[in-house]
Design a protein that fits this description.
Helix 4 runs parallel beside helix 5. The strands form two sheets. A five-stranded parallel beta sheet has the order 6-7-8-3-9, with helices on both faces. Strands 2-1-4-5 form a four-stranded antiparallel beta sheet. A hairpin with a 2-residue loop joins strand 1 and strand 2. The radius of gyration is 17 Å and the shape is globular. By secondary structure, it is an alpha/beta fold. It has six helices and nine strands.
């Protein structure tokens, strides 16, 4: 299985918890804002330690009662809600930051339809273009799996469609386990090979 996750963590008075097993392809965690979807990604990426449970990706244990690999050893490509590009580096240099295979930059840029942007500065990019650059940077790090946190939020319809097509191409060409979170059901159903609903945990 691509993802085998059973985690819980207390955040203030509430608990964020999820349990799911997912096969190959793109899995979507769907639910309204505030239910802890980003917190779940942080636990899978190693940015937040769960109170209990386990995280296994493609049969590799990242977290359990005796194991807690740091983020840099999890081989994760994480695309945050904000693109987090370096403003002083052109697009090409941003994509190559942390790259393990610099020879793939043109190929990845073509897949994401950003080859014409490689010499541009981040400040000149639209929101959708910046998200695609961030996805490209994550792919060039040669990750074992990819996490996408609301990659289409706050985009206008045209940019949203461009970003969705790019994610579809990555899903179909890279053959990576991908976990994406969204509050938009139409995005989830279009992009996901499966959709898992995330609900609020009761306060205790």
């Amino acid at each position: 299985m691509s993802f085998d996750v059973d985690v819980a963590v207390r955040r203030g008075e509430a608990q964020v918890a999820a349990r799911f097993v997912a096969g190959d392809g793109l899995t979507v965690l769907a639910g309204p804002s505030g239910v802890g979807k980003t917190t779940l990604l942080h636990m899978i990426a190693g940015l937040l330690t769960p109170d209990r449970g386990h995280v296994r990706v493609a049969g590799r244990t990242l977290f359990d009662a005796v194991t807690n690999l740091p983020p840099e050893r999890r081989s994760v490509g994480y695309v945050f809600q904000d693109a987090r590009l370096f403003p002083h580096r052109r697009v090409r240099a941003n994509m190559l930051y942390g790259a393990r295979d610099a020879t793939r930059v043109e190929e990845v840029a073509t897949t994401l339809d950003i080859a014409h942007l490689l010499e541009r500065w981040p400040r000149t990019l639209s929101g959708g273009e910046a998200r695609r650059v961030a996805i490209g940077r994550a792919l060039l790090s040669d990750p074992a799996f990819l996490l996408l946190d609301e990659p289409l939020s706050s985009l206008d319809p045209r940019r949203r469609e461009e970003a969705m097509r790019a994610i579809e191409r990555v899903r179909d060409s890279e053959r990576l386990p991908i976990l994406m979170v969204t509050h938009d059901r139409s995005e989830a159903e279009r992009l996901g090979d499966r959709v898992i609903d995330v609900e609020s945990s009761p306060r205790t």
